[in-house]
From TrEMBL:
Group of enzyme by EC: transferase
Protein's name in the database: Phosphatidylglycerol--prolipoprotein diacylglyceryl transferase
UniProt gene name: lgt
Location (main, coarse): membrane
Organism of provenance: Pectinatus brassicae
Domain of life: Bacteria
Residues that, per the record, bind a 1,2-diacyl-sn-glycero-3-phospho-(1'-sn-glycerol): R131
Described function: Catalyzes the transfer of the diacylglyceryl group from phosphatidylglycerol to the sulfhydryl group of the N-terminal cysteine of a prolipoprotein, the first step in the formation of mature lipoproteins.
A molecular function (GO) term: phosphatidylglycerol-prolipoprotein diacylglyceryl transferase activity
Entry keyword set: Cell membrane, Lipoprotein, Membrane, Transferase, Transmembrane, Transmembrane helix
Topological relation to the membrane, as annotated: Multi-pass membrane protein
Amino acid sequence: MHQYLFYIGDFPVRSYGLVLSLSIILAVGVGYFLAKQDGRWQGHVVDMGIYCGLAGILGARLWDVFFFDWEYYGNHITEIFNVWQGGMAIQGGIFLGTITGIIYAKKHKIDVLAIADILAPAMILGQALGRCANLLNGDAFGTPTGTGYGLVYPVTTLAHHVYGSQPLWPAEVWEGQLDFVIFALLLIFRSFKHGRGQAFTLYIMLYSVARFCLEFLRGDYSEPVFGLCTSAQMTSVIAFILAFIGFIYFGWRDRKTNSNSDGIVEQIPIKTKKRRHK
C-alpha cells in the first residue's frame, strides 16, 4: 500500500485522494448509465453526483470528527478538514449526501424515491471503491488477529501508529468486497417488480447489516456507547429499523395502488336517442 504516489514539488499526490475522486467519478458514471437505461433524469445525474459527492465527503468527515474523534479535534480545530489523516465516517457521507440529493430533486421536480432507487447501486459501488482508498491510506483498519494472518501496515499509517507491526483483520477490504456483493444484489432486485422506494431502503438495510457485523473487527473505533455497542453499530441499527419500516410500507403501498387500479372499470358513456314529440 502506498500513501504517496508522487510529488509535485513539495506537494504530495496521495493515493487516498486519487482513488476517492475516482470512486465518485465512476459512481456518477454508473448512475448516468442506470438513469439512461431507465429513461429518466440522466441529464441531472452528473450535477447531482457532483453536489452529493462533495456533500458526502463533508458529511463523512464531520460525522467522524464530532461523533468519533471530538476529544482530539476539539483541541486541534485546524486539523478538522485534514481528511488525509484518516477519519471519514461513511454513514455521515450517506446521510448528508442523501439530504443533498433530496434537496436537488425537490428543486428540479424529480421523484425523490424513484431517483433514489435508480442510483442506489451506483452509491454502494462508490462506497466499495472508496474502501480501496482506506486500504491505501492505512485507515478504517481492523483489530489484531493474534496470529500470523492479517494486514501489516507501513510505519507512516495510522494503523501502524496504533498497533505497530501486528497483523490486523482486513476490515476495510472485507467491507469493500461486501459492498460489491450488495451492488450485485441491488441490480438483481431492480430487475424484478418492486415498490417505489424499496430498492433504496434495501440498500440501506443490507449495508447496515454488513457494517454492524464488521464493526466487531474494527480497530480504530472500539469503545462501546452506553456499554452496548459502537457508535457505528448504533447508527446501523437505527438505519436498518427505519429502512425496514420504509421497505414494508413502500411494498404495501405499491400493492394497494395496483389493487385499486385493477378494480377500476372504465365507464363508457351510452348514447341514447332523443324521442321526438309529434
